[in-house]
Design goal:
By secondary structure, the chain is an alpha/beta fold. 32% of the residues lie in helices and 16% in strands. The protein has one domain: Rossmann fold.
Length: 210
């Protein structure tokens, strides 16, 4: 499959997940097999409406000698690729940690959606999961290599394997509906991850992993 065909297919899947009627969608049976956990009922919203969550690690960061670097050029390119992939998704909420690399990843989505992004504490992921699950709409969450899979799990999804330190191409899509298992899809976007290869300059260690 060519890159253009893959991008079109990915965009179509993202649009489907954002708009599908879960009870009758042909996707529902497929996605249910990927879900391994039931979201606690205390975090369900009361409107019987679906919550769709797009979760990404921030894109490649630059080496600037600080613990809070911005995105590298490779990261800026990756963000634009993700913008194209989610072009048909009408986001209603954008969440980010308070670091330049995550804010830089989230900002273009918030600007296009016409919403203010909200900051979350990466040490309070359970609280964030409860807030998201109780708020119908389409959420984008920019996080880190360790917090992103943790948040997927907190939302009742399948985080798959840990994210490698050089791995920036994961896009998790979770569909959450009251009284049903969370449905997880894992897509790839942009420059493909190759184990052990770094496509963007990196800064020194921080309290969060990469």
């Amino acid at each position: 499959m060519t890159r253009n065909r893959f991008a079109k297919t990915s965009r179509a899947l993202c649009r489907l997940l954002a708009t599908a009627a879960l009870g009758s969608s042909p996707y529902a049976a497929f996605a249910a097999s990927a879900a391994r956990a039931q979201l606690p009922s205390a975090t369900h919203n009361d409107n019987d409406e679906a919550v769709v969550v797009y979760l990404v690690r921030h894109a490649e960061r630059a080496e600037n000698g600080t613990d809070d670097p911005p995105l590298a050029l490779a990261g800026q390119i990756r963000v634009q690729q993700l913008l194209g992939m989610l072009a048909d998704v009408d986001l209603t909420h954008v969440h980010t940690t308070d670091f330049k690399r995550t804010r830089d990843t989230a900002r273009p989505f918030a600007e296009r959606a016409g919403v203010e992004f909200t900051m979350y504490d990466p040490r309070e992921l359970e609280a964030l999961a409860g807030e998201i699950a109780a708020t119908p709409g389409r959420h984008l969450v920019a996080g880190h290599s360790n917090t992103t899979p943790q948040l997927v799990a907190a939302l009742g999804g399948d985080p798959s394997d840990p994210i490698d330190e050089f791995e920036y191409d994961r896009l998790y899509i979770l569909v959450i509906q009251p009284d049903r298992p969370a449905m997880t899809t894992l897509l790839r976007f942009g420059e493909p991850y190759v184990e052990g290869q770094d496509f963007g300059l990196r800064a020194g260690s921080t309290a969060l992993r990469n």
